[in-house]
Amino acid sequence: MKQFWGSMAIALSATLFMLYQSGAFAEKQGAAKPQTAAAEAAKPEEKKTGPSADSITAQIDKTSLSNGGTITVTGTAPPGKPVFVEIWADKKVRASRFDSEPDKETGKRPYIFYLSEDMPAYYKLFVPAESKGALENIKKEGKSWSFSKALKDLGADVAYSVPAKVKIARYQTTLTGSIIGSRGELLPAMDEKENKKRSMQLVKARFRSADKVLGAGVVVNPDGTYKAEIKIREGLAPGKYNVVASVDKKIKSRPLAFENNIHFPLLYLENAGTSLNLFGPLLLTLAISIFGVLMGAGGGFILNPLLLTIWPLPHTVVAGTVMPTVLFAQGSGIYNYSKIKFISWKLGTVIGLSMVLGGFIGPKLTELITLDQFKFIFGWILLVLAGLMVWQTTPGYLAKNKKEQAILKEFQKRAAEEAAKKKQA
């Protein structure tokens, strides 16, 4: 039996060796091997303009950063051609846009909601340094700037590629549906050209300002050598970042990569696509919660605009994040107010039912409005509330509302009694 298995093993080994010798496990002669963009560009026999006009190389000076820093990209490109450098992060974030602008031809409003979960957490396209003047003019356009127009004006539309390939879902909603925050009906997928067009709109909706997605810092020399010092700002997403240099849609360098590392107390917020120091929001929230609970409001109405102003957070993430923080503050507030019997549970239950309904509509509606609209609405609400509260503290108002005065006196009396009991204990 042992001789049988030994013979089988020898026969199998011999068969495998013969197959190997015959080339069964190797690539067939003449078969095309996979090539990178740089390798394909390096074949002079396949190009019409010679070896100096069909390839581009790129190198980076470091492969690791600590919460941002400067990366220097150098290389060679066809002489006389502009060089563009595209950088993006591997980590993804959500980008959305609600299209309610009237059509220029028909005048009708489309009410289409565009949504992508695959937008790079960081994306920036660097153009030749001589385009700095044109880029400054784009920045002067303010909120009305167009990303697609900016790419054409800078000649960078030939280098724009990564966001153009993200998967975008679109939903057909209605005026009524948009008011209550409904996404509506999912529409068929778009073709490549339309997807690229909508991706540009999503890039602007996500990153908002032109200087966050466009930069003029690639210095190109007459002999084709180039250099770009690219600053990765603090507070960006950690992880892998990719770099590709190009002169047009076909001639691109091989992808390069570097890591952006963060450490405690920095915390990366995946849905916001940014990193921040934990101690800042911690101390801010502590101060606001003390004041907010004192007013019976939880502090969310104060915390919301401050988070938007101090840190680069999307308004949708801020609105959602503040909700559970208010829950903690309200929970402790409810306990303490119930001890001094200052809660009307009947009225609170009725109001609570309305808040449940609003809790379903609010999050969806937040997706469909822009940051500017959010700030405008929120600002007016705060102004109205501030006016009412100031009015209610005037002597004339207090004189007409004896009941409120009685409540204030009762509160002061109970607070004094509670303080006295604590001293005796």
Determine the structural class based on helices, strands and strand pairing: alpha+beta
CATH topology of the largest domain: Immunoglobulin-like
The H-and-E topology, N to C, reads as HHEEEEEEEHHEHEHEEEEEEHHHHHHH
Q: Mind telling me the CATH superfamily name of the largest domain? A: Macroglobulin (MG2) domain
| Morphology | elongated
Annotation field: number of helices: 13
- List low-confidence stretches: 1-12, 14-51
Amount of helix: 40-55%
Describe the structure.
It is a single chain. The chain has 425 residues and is an alpha+beta fold. It has two domains: 40-261, Immunoglobulin-like (Sandwich); 278-391, no CATH class. 45% of the residues lie in helices and 20% in strands. The protein has 13 helices and 15 strands. It has a nine-stranded mixed β-sheet, with no helix packed on it. Strands 5-6-8-9 form a four-stranded antiparallel β-sheet, with helices on one face. Helix 7 (279-295) runs antiparallel to helix 8, helix 7 packs across helix 9 (315-339) and helix 8 packs antiparallel against helix 9. It is elongated and about 85 Å long. 25% of the residues are buried.
Per-chain topology:
Blueprint: H1 2-22, H2 37-41, E1 59-60, E2 64-66, E3 69-76, E4 84-89, E5 92-99, E6 112-120, E7 123-128, H3 132-140, H4 147-154, E8 169-172, H5 175-179, E9 185-186, H6 192-207, E10 214-220, E11 225-232, E12 239-246, E13 256-261, E14 266-269, E15 274-277, H7 279-295, H8 300-310, H9 315-339, H10 345-367, H11 371-391, H12 395-400, H13 402-424
Parallel strand pairs: 2-13, 7-10
Antiparallel strand pairs: 1-3, 3-11, 4-7, 4-12, 5-6, 6-8, 8-9, 10-11, 12-13, 14-15
Helix pairs in contact: 7-8, 7-9, 8-9
